[in-house]
Design brief:
The chain has helices at about 30-35, 70-95, 110-120, 140-145, 155-165, 205-215, 265-275, 300-310, 340-350, 370-380, 415-420, 455-460; strands at about 5-10, 10-15, 15-20, 40-45, 100-105, 130, 150-155, 180, 190, 225-230, 250-255, 280-285, 290-295, 310-315, 325-330, 335, 355-360, 365. It is an alpha/beta fold and about 475 residues long. The protein has 2 domains: about 5-280 and about 440-460, Alpha-Beta Barrel (TIM Barrel); about 300-420, no CATH class. A hairpin with a 7-residue loop joins strand 12 (about 280-285) and strand 13. Helix 1 (about 30-35) packs parallel to helix 2 and helix 2 (about 70-95) packs parallel to helix 3. The protein starts with 6 loop residues before the first strand and ends with a helix.
C-alpha cells in the first residue's frame, strides 16, 4: 500500500479521507466531529438536521401550520436551527483537528435560505459546503460570501463544465475540490443522466480522467478530485494515488461511517447492515425527486415495486383498444381500459386491491383501501421538503404546485427518512445505502458484529483495509 499523503482542503493539510454527508440526521455533529478529530474531513448534513434542547434531548418536529406554505416555513425554520445545532456539536467534538464540512442538497426546499440562515450564525465553525442533487449554480456565490470553500458533487465532466461556465469561473479561489460521485455505486440519490444506462455500470476511472481533463481546461490542474461511491478500502484504489492522469485525489466514505459507535442510526439499522448480501441494494426511480436512488431492498421498496406493477393505462373515452368501461372512485366515473387490462384490474380487485388511483401519466395503480388512505393523507400533510415533489405536486414556486397530478406511485420522502432516523423501524422505511454495503457481512473487521469507533475505522482505512 502506497503512503497516504496529506492533501490541502479548505485551507489546511488533512488526510485525504472525507466522511460523506448523509441526511436526514444520519451524518450529524457527533459523527462528523469525531471524523474531523482524526485529521480528515467530517461532514454533517444540514438536510433537516436535528435540534436539541438545553439538556441535549431531541426536539421533536411538530408541524402546526394548516397549509403547505405554513408548514413549509416551519420546515425552513427547523432546518436552520438544526444546522446551527449540529455545526456547534461538530466543532466541539473535532477538538480543532481536520476540517468540518456541511452537506446540503440543491433540490431540497429553500436550500439558499437555509444555507444563509446557518452560515450567518456559525460560518466560523464551518470550512466547506458540499452540494449535489441537482445543478448547484449559486452555491459558489453563497459560500464565497462567507469565506467558505464549496465542493460541488457531480457525476460527469460534462456536468462540471456546465457549472463552471455558468457560475463557478467567477469564484475559482473558493473551489475546494470537485466531488465525483459515481452514479452506479453511491447510496442515496444518484446523478444518472438520460444518456447513461442504469443497468450497465461504467468504470469510474475513465470518467474521473475525463473530469480531470475538463478541469485542466479550466485551469484547475491542482484542484483535488474527491472520489465518492463504492469506496471501501484504499488498497483497491492504490493505482489512483500519485497518478498524474488524475492529479490530487481524495476519497469519500459514505457507507462505512454508518457502522461506527458515533453513528446516530439505530441499533436495528446497524444490525441490518451487518446482514446485507450482494444484490440487496436496489437502484430504483421511485423517489419523489425524479432522481434514481440506491437503497436496501426491503418491504418498503417491495411495496413500491408491486404498486407500480399493478398499473394499467386508461382513456377517458373509448378509443382504439380502450373500449372496456371501468368505474373509478367513490362516484364510479367510467374510464376505459383494454379488455386484457380490465381483466387484470378485476383480478387485483379480488385480491383486495380495490382502490384505483390515477397517476399523472394517464394510468391507474391498484392498492388496498388502507394504503390509498395513507397515500392521500401523506399528500395532504405535505410540508414542502423539496423544491418540487412528484408525490404531492408541491413546488416552492409562486403557485405552490408543479401543476401536475400528485403521483401515488411515489412516497413522502420526508416522512420515511424521519421515521428511519428516529426509530428502530427499518424494514418498512426507506434505507439508503451504497452498493458496497453488503461488504459489512464479508469484512473480517466487523466479525461477530463488531462496531468500531470512528477513530478505529479511520486508522483501519489508512492501512489500506
Amino acid at each position: 500500500m502506497k503512503t497516504l499523503n496529506p492533501i490541502r482542503l479548505s485551507g489546511r493539510e488533512v488526510l485525504p479521507l472525507i466522511e460523506g454527508g448523509k441526511g436526514i440526521s444520519v451524518s450529524n455533529g457527533e459523527s462528523s466531529g469525531a471524523w474531523s478529530a482524526t485529521g480528515g474531513i467530517g461532514t454533517f448534513s444540514a438536510v433537516n438536521a436535528d435540534s436539541l434542547d438545553a439538556d441535549g434531548r431531541l426536539i421533536p418536529i411538530t408541524y402546526k401550520g394548516q397549509t403547505r406554505r405554513e408548514r413549509h416555513r416551519e420546515l425552513i425554520a427547523f432546518g436552520i436551527q438544526g444546522g446551527i445545532t449540529q455545526a456547534k456539536i461538530a466543532h466541539e467534538r473535532s477538538n480543532g483537528q481536520g476540517r468540518l464540512h456541511m452537506n446540503v442538497l440543491w433540490e431540497m426546499a429553500a436550500v439558499e435560505e437555509i444555507l444563509h440562515g446557518v452560515l450567518k450564525e456559525v460560518s466560523p465553525l464551518i470550512h466547506g459546503v458540499t452540494c449535489g442533487a441537482g445543478m448547484p449554480y449559486r452555491v459558489a456565490e453563497i459560500t464565497a460570501g462567507y469565506g467558505i470553500h464549496y465542493y460541488p458533487i457531480v457525476s460527469s465532466g460534462r456536468a462540471f463544465r456546465a457549472l463552471w461556465k455558468r457560475a463557478f469561473h467567477k469564484f475559482p479561489e473558493w473551489l475546494g475540490a470537485v466531488v465525483y460521485e459515481d452514479p452506479w455505486r453511491a447510496g442515496g440519490h444518484n446523478g444518472l443522466s438520460n444518456s447513461e444506462k442504469p443497468e450497465i455500470p461504467e468504470d469510474p476511472y475513465p470518467r474521473v480522467v475525463e473530469l480531470r481533463r475538463v478541469m485542466r481546461e479550466c485551469g484547475l490542474n491542482d484542484t483535488p478530485i474527491i472520489m465518492a461511491g463504492g469506496v471501501w478500502c484504499l488498497k483497491e484504489w492504490e493505482d489512483w494515488l500519485d497518478n498524474p492522469d488524475l492529479g490530487p485525489i481524495g476519497f469519500q466514505f459514505g457507507t462505512r461511517p454508518l457502522l461506527t459507535q458515533e453513528s446516530p442510526i439505530s441499533d436495528a439499522w446497524k444490525k441490518r447492515l451487518l446482514t446485507l448480501q450482494p444484490g440487496d441494494i436496489y437502484l430504483n426511480k421511485f423517489s419523489p425527486t425524479g432522481f434514481y436512488s440506491s437503497a436496501v431492498s426491503n418491504p418498503f421498496l417491495e411495496d413500491l415495486k408491486e404498486r407500480n406493477a399493478r398499473q394499467v393505462a386508461y382513456s377517458i373515452s373509448p378509443v382504439g383498444d380502450h373500449t372496456e368501461g371501468f368505474p373509478v372512485g367513490a362516484r364510479g366515473r367510467l374510464v376505459y381500459l383494454t379488455a386484457h387490462d380490465k381483466e387484470m384490474a378485476e383480478s387485483w380487485g379480488k385480491m383486495g386491491y380495490t382502490e384505483a388511483m390515477r397517476t399523472p401519466d394517464t394510468t391507474l395503480i391498484f392498492v388496498t383501501p388502507p394504503k390509498s388512505q395513507e397515500i392521500l393523507t401523506d399528500q395532504i400533510e405535505c410540508m414542502g421538503c423539496l423544491s418540487a415533489c412528484l408525490f404531492s405536486n408541491w413546488s416552492q414556486n409562486e403557485e405552490g404546485t408543479t401543476s401536475r397530478k400528485a403521483d401515488p406511485r411515489s412516497f413522502c420522502i420526508q416522512k420515511t427518512l424521519q421515521a428511519i432516523s428516529h426509530s428502530e423501524e427499518v424494514d418498512h422505511q426507506l434505507m439508503f445505502a451504497g452498493h458496497s454495503a453488503y461488504r459489512f457481512s464479508q469484512d473480517p473487521f466487523y466479525a461477530n458484529g463488531y462496531i468500531p469507533t470512528v477513530k478505529e475505522l479511520v486508522e483501519k482505512i489508512q492501512t489500506g483495509e
